[in-house]
Amino acid sequence: MADPIRTAPGFVAVFVDRARALGLSHREVDEIAGLGEGYFSKLACGDRRPTASTIEKLCGALHLAFLPCATGAAQMGVCESDEYSDHR
After folding, report:
1. Fewest CB within 10 A of the end CB: N or C in the chain?
2. Is residue 3, in this structure, part of any structural domain at all?
3. Residue 2 lies inside a defined structural domain of this protein
4. Which phi and psi angles does 80 have, rounded to 5°?
5. Total-model pTM
6. What CATH number has the domain bearing residue 31?
7. pLDDT digits (tens), the chain, 88 positions
């Protein structure tokens, strides 16, 4: 199991890497996640910090699972079924 992610930049790095792996542009991520135009780019360059709501939206859009740890930290994991093509 991956190490827990404990910082906003850690979450953002996972989101950026996953979007790249899925071949999505920042604009496409904004659209799929229901975020404002340019929001994902602002996250990626560190101009914004993700809220809990944004993390939830991005996990759904990028097919990632958010699993709270017993210590109160957070851990990310890629969903086992990758059905992204159904949402494009």
Report:
1. N
2. no
3. no
4. -70, -40
5. 0.75
6. 1.10.260.40
7. 567 777 889 899 999 999 999 999 999 999 999 999 999 999 999 999 999 899 999 999 999 987 766 554 444 444 333 444 444 4
